[in-house]
Write a structure and sequence with these properties.
The protein is α/β, with parallel strands linked by helices and 241 residues long. It has seven helices and eleven strands. β9 (194-197) and β10 form a beta hairpin.
């Protein structure tokens, strides 16, 4: 599959969670690239660094699709398949979660529980992703005033929500509301929305049983959601080889 996984990790040494993330990718033979040679410069800097790397990857002309994701609290269960890639013909797909964003306009427009963006997983064609990140950076100052003037600090997820709510890009921005690509756990995810079976976590969203590409346990690793830290370790290190 012509897909590369891209992440940012500015820690000087690999943490246990980063090692687990890499192990999950090695198990499914999915190539990855880690941006880890610079000091953390903030959320806008992170978007700038990702955009720079996307431009480099486009020039290399080796990969067509890129997954941009977190690496401390996320694992891969499978590689993207043909049906997953079909959805990317004219779209970027973003991870969805229940937890509300800080964009009031977004929350008024998208009212269903899973219609909220989690910036820990994005997948798309490289050229579309370049346009997307350029839009985020171009609109950063404008949207900061328009949507977040009352915030002391905004992050990339806030900005993604603002761009999503006013999308003027030449392709669709889609939320993975049925958790086919990534199952994002927050503290209000109910037990009837997922199933753990034989070292696999299935999504039961939309009344269908599916294996998400990724499982994301966002938040403080010292306060794991629903004991997910131990479960993710078990999937990666004890699951099928």
């Amino acid at each position: 599959m012509n897909v590369l996984v891209l992440t940012v990790d500015t820690n000087e040494e690999k943490c246990a969670e980063r090692i687990r993330w890499e192990k999950s990718l090695l198990k499914i033979d999915l190539n990855f690239r880690v941006l880890d040679k610079e000091k953390w410069g903030g959320w806008k800097w992170r978007c700038e660094r990702i955009l720079k790397e996307l431009v480099t990857l486009e020039l290399e002309n080796k990969y067509k699709y890129i997954i941009i994701c977190d690496c401390w609290d996320l694992i891969f269960q499978r590689a993207p398949g043909n049906l997953d890639v079909e959805e990317l013909k004219n779209a970027i797909i973003l991870g969805a979660e229940k937890q509300r964003t800080g964009v009031k306009k977004f929350n008024r427009k998208y009212k269903e529980p899973w219609e909220n963006i989690n910036g820990g997983f994005i997948i798309g064609d490289i050229s579309n992703l370049i346009q997307y990140y350029r839009c985020i950076l171009d609109k950063w100052s404008t949207y900061k005033v328009k949507f977040f003037n009352y915030f002391n600090e905004i992050d990339d997820q806030h900005m993604m929500s603002a761009v999503f709510s006013e999308n003027k890009l030449p392709f669709h921005l889609k939320l993975d509301t049925n958790s086919s690509y990534v199952l994002n756990f927050t503290r209000d995810v109910k037990e009837n929305e997922f199933l753990i079976e034989n070292n696999v976590i299935y999504s039961l969203r939309d009344n269908t049983k599916k294996i998400p590409i990724c499982i994301h346990n966002p938040g403080n690793p010292e306060m794991p959601i629903q004991n997910l830290t131990a479960i993710l370790n078990k999937i990666v290190f004890e699951g099928n080889k």
